[in-house]
Each structure stands twice: as structure tokens, then as C-alpha cells.
Amino acid sequence: MLLLASLAFAAFILILFAGIYLTLFDLLGTVIIFIDVFLYALFTGFDRVSGKIILFLLLISIIVEAIDFFLVMTGALQPMATKKVFWTAAISAIAGAFILTPFFWGPGAWAGFFLGGFAGIITLEVARQTKLKSLYRASKLAIIAMAGRKIVKGFVALFMVALSLSNIYS
Fold it and tell me: What residues in the chain have per-residue pLDDT under 50?
């Protein structure tokens, strides 16, 4: 039974990382984080994570995804989603986690994972934009807006993870 519980908790943590990673690509990462925490709370009988926390995470997730959807529908710049971008972001995210973990321990792993992936995506997008003819390039303001949107969504995802884990470990 202990092995099964350990494997389930490891899967829970990996899904939290996946949720943060998905926010980098304008996918429903906060929803994945919410569902993961909800299932954890359901399987543990809401012992560590209360219903109030679940409702709060649901509200945050709905608000963030609705705002992100609205911004994308109004023409916000989105980076190209290619295999190269996915792999670069994954490698950068893992590198970022390894770099920040010795300095900030657990929070450094989570923040480093997000910031590393973010740096990889932004670097590739800026490099791609410089290869385009000036007529087809996005403006600097559009790139800054895209970066700001990703940072806000990513930090909200990090907040959701921190809130969930602080309730689980307290």
C-alpha cells in the first residue's frame, strides 16, 4: 500500500509540473493543476486540501483561462508551436529547475522550471522574428505583451501549486 501511495504522489507532482509546462504554450495548464489537486483531495478525503481551497483554485483557473482566451481572440501574439519549441522549452525548463534548486530549494525547482521554459520559448521566438522580413515581424510591443501574458499565467500557476503544496505539507 505504501508503494502505491508513493507512486500516486509522484504522479501528482509530475502532473503539477505538466500543468506549469502547459501554461507556456497557452494550453489549459491551470485547469490541469486544478483537476490534479481536486483528484488528490478527493482520494485523500479532503483531509489535507479543503473544499475552500478547491473552490479558490477553480475560481482562479476560470478567471486566468478566460482572460487568456480573450487576449488570444483579440489577436495576441502566440509563438510558433513546433517540435523544436516544445523540446527547447522542455530542456530549458529542466535546466532552470536544476539551476535554481540549490539556491531556493523546493520553490526554486518550481520557479526554475517555469522560468527556464519561458526563457527557452522567448529566445526561440525572438530568433524566429529576426529571421522574418520586417513586413512580417511582430512589433516589439507584441512580443513584450506575449511575454507578459505568459509570465502572469505562469506565476498564477506557480501560486496554485504553492498554495496546494503548502496545504498538503502543513
Answer: none
CA atoms within 13 A on the CB side of 168: 19
Q: How many CA atoms lie less than 13 Å away from 14 in the CB half-sphere?
A: 6
Residue 79 and residue 124 in contact, taking contact as beta carbons nearer than 8 Å: yes
Buried-exposed string 154-164: b where 16+ CB fall within 10 A, e elsewhere: bebbbebbebb
Closest by CA to 61, choosing from 95, 34, 96, 40, is 34
| Number of domains forming the structure of the chain | 1
- Supply the range of the domain harboring residue 158: 2-169
Nearest CA-CA partner of 109 in 98, 118, 119 = 98
pTM of the model: 0.95
**What are 156's three cell numbers?**
498564477
